[in-house]
Amino acid sequence: MKAFKAELAANGITDNKLEALMALADRSWIEKSAAEWLTHVNGEATNAPMQTTESHEKAQAIMGRNFLGLEEVEKAFGVKYSTGDRAKLATIQFSDETLCASKDTHVLVAGFRMSINDIRKNRNVKGNAAKLFFSAVGEGWYNDEPFANASVECRWFLLRKKPIDNSTSKTYEEQLQLIPRGEENPWARDVVFATIALFLTTGERMFEKIYVRCKDVSSRGGRFGVGFFVRDGLDVYFGWDGCRDGGIGVGSVRNS
Q: 136: domain range?
C-alpha cells in the first residue's frame, strides 16, 4: 500500500488533494475511483466476482427489460468480464433522470470487447435456433472490413431502440441534424452488439423491417447501416449518404 501511495504522490495525487476531492461528496466519483484503485492493487490475476453497486440495481429497476447489465451480457454470449472490466463498469454514469426518460425508448448496455465478427462466431449465436445474421460467419461482403473487426468498448451506453422519428427518406447529413442533444450516431458494432444481446435475453428484435445508418464508412466509401432483423437474420449494408430511402433511418446513442 505504501508503494501504491508513493505512486499516487508521484503523479501529483497527494493526501491533501484526496481529502479535497472526498469533501465534494461525489459518491459516483468515490465508487469509481475506489474500484479502479482496488483493481490496481489486486491486479488482473483474479476473476473473483465484484459486488454490483446500488446504481446497477437501481438502473435495472428503472430500465426493466431494457437493461443489459453484466449478468445479462455474460449469459447471452457465454463470456466473463475481467476484474478490470468490472471495475470500469462498477458505476453507471447516467443520472436517474436520464434513465427514467429513456426507459421506454433506449436499452442500457454494458459493453464487452467483441467485434461484429466475434459475435457472429460466438457459440451462443451460431447455435441459436433462430438465424441471427443474414450472412453466415466467414461469409458476406463485410467479413474482411475493418469495422467488422473493431471491438465494442467496455463502457455503458444507452442505445435508442428505434430510428430517430421522421428520419427516413432523408440524406445522412439531414438525419444527423435530427439527433437529440447529448446523443450521437452510433458505431455499427454497438448496434449489432445490443441488438443481438437483447434478442438472446428477451427475444425482442430491434430494428425489425427498418435500417439505421451508423457512423462507420466502408473501404469503398459507403455508409454502413444495420437492421431488417427478421427471420433471415440481422443484415448489414452500405450505401450512399445522399440516398433518400423510406426504409433507412438514423441510429442514436448516448455514451457514458
A: 50-255
